[in-house]
Structures are given as C-alpha cells and as structure tokens.
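Input chain follows. Return structure tokens only.
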Amino acid sequence: MKAAVLRGVKQPLTIEECVAGALAFYPTVERAERVHLAVAQTLALLGAEEEAVEAYARAREVVKARLARIRDETLRERYVKMSIVRAIQDASP
C-alpha cells in the first residue's frame, strides 16, 4: 500500500515507512506503542496482513524496550496490565 508522501526523488513511501520515519525522527515519542498498535490494527483492517504482522512486531519491541527501562516491579506489573500492552502482546502475528 503506497501513501501519497514522496521523497526528494519522488519515490512513493508505504504507510509503514512514513510511520517508521516519523518514529525514528522522534524516538522518544510518549507512548509510541499506541502509535504502533494503531498502525497495525489499521493495516489489518485494510487487509495488508504482512505489513500488519510487521507493525505488531515493532509494537512488541517498543513494549519490550519500555519494560527493560522500568526498574520498579510494581510499575512494571502495572504497565503489563494496561489494556494497550495486553492488546499488543495478545495480537496474533
């Protein structure tokens, strides 16, 4: 699926490339897992299964990285119980 966004050489980008570029430019996006989940769900609804699987995998990586930074066990447990985190972890690839 191609987006209407163009690079300097006018090469069309996929929606995933646009989102990945934005997240790479802003690596400290607060709650980036929400963005990745929304992209994955949207791609799945559009029938772009392969891209959705990749987006869910990236969402899981964001969750994993965030969990690695949470040192307090109570906060980690609270984070894992959040509905958005459960949705990402429970998503079937």
